Every structure is written in C-alpha cells, then in structure tokens.
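=== RUN LOG ===
request id: a7f3
mode: sequence -> structure
chains: 1
length: 223
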Amino acid sequence: MDSAFDQELEALLAEIAAEMQDTQHWTGRARLDRRVIEALRRVPRHVFVPDDLRGSAYANHPLPIGHGQTISQPYVVALMTDLVRPRADDVVLEIGTGSGYQAAVLACLAKRVYTMEIVAELAELARERLHRLGHDNIEVAVGDGHFGWPAHAPYDAIVVTAATPAIPPALLDQLKPGGRLVIPVGPPCSDQELRLVAKDALGMIVERGVLPVVFVPLVGGPA
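=== RESULT ===
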C-alpha cells in the first residue's frame, strides 16, 4: 500500500464501517468480518482507477473506468465480499472483472479466483494490473458471464458485479452445494436489489434480498 494514501484509506474504512451500521436493517450485518477489512486494507484501490481519477480513489462511490463500466462503490465491494464468506481454501467465480479490484479483494481471502469480463480491453488491462500486483491466484478470461465458467466449476462462491433481470441458470448450476452467490437483480440502472443465494447440501436454493442498489447491466446473454 502506498503510504501517500494511508489516511484516505483509513477514512474510507471508517466510512464503510459507519455505512454497515446504517444499513444493517436491510443487510442483517452490522459489521464486516475482520478478514474482509484487512483485505480492503491490502488492496491499493488507487491502482485500479484511471490516472485522472486517482484523487477520488478512496471516495466511497463508484468511478468510471471506460467502456460504460465502473469500479463499484467500496462499501458495496466490502458487503458483497462479506456476504459470500470466502474462506482460505475456496474457489471463487467473479462475473464482471472490470478494473480487477473486486477480484483482488477476493484473492486476498480465497485459494483461487476465476474472473470473467466481456470487454476484451478491460480484461487485458485487469490481467496486467493483477499480475503486476502479484496476484498469482487469479485467472482472467474474456467471455459472457451469463454462462459462467464451467471448466472450473463448481464454485464455493460466486460474485456478480453487474445487474441482470434474472439470475442466470448456469450460475446456479455452477454453485457448489453449501456455496453462496451474490448478484444485483433488476432492470438497467433502477429498481435493482442485491440478492444473496445459498445452495444447501441437497442442492436446494434459498434466496433473499439484501439491499437496494444500482449497477451497470450485465452485457451479453442468450441470443
């Protein structure tokens, strides 16, 4: 972590902690797991934003990264990570690599992260950035996230960072029994809800709404 940003990072973590308290009536979570906080502390968010926006890297709101995409609000990254409860031996799938920031946070907590991005240029930039930062437990692929990444399934956790009107069936199929999936569901840019999906040991699905959100839409899907 660049010491020039230490104070801004600590201020952001304090703001995230306050927002967790403020939203607990929705999320059921008053505070983050300590491991998630430490992962946020380890990942230099300013490296994942465009150079001209580095001064806003530790503001608690999304930022544009080009191609109509954004790096998500840090509070939302923290909450989504916390909800899927990644463990040290987990294999995680992320749909919507974007800048690579969410993948980097997950990689601090899980054994392996597979992340998919439909925009080839963003995928290549993220791959280079993550390699430069030493995240050798992340694999980036260009592809349509609606269909998941069956070659490495099943996954202990799945994180989707773009909104879709309905949860893609392939992602439910690729979730391991006992696994958790978090995804924003709803129409483009309004009336979306962050949902947490759990699959029990028998493969039954339990789903609940967590929080009103606004995400960019998940691109692609069945023709």
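=== NOTES ===
The helical segments are 6-22, 24-27, 34-42, 74-84, 101-107, 120-132, 169-173.
The beta strands are 63-66, 69-71, 91-95, 112-117, 138-142, 155-160, 175-185, 192-199, 205-213.
=== END ===
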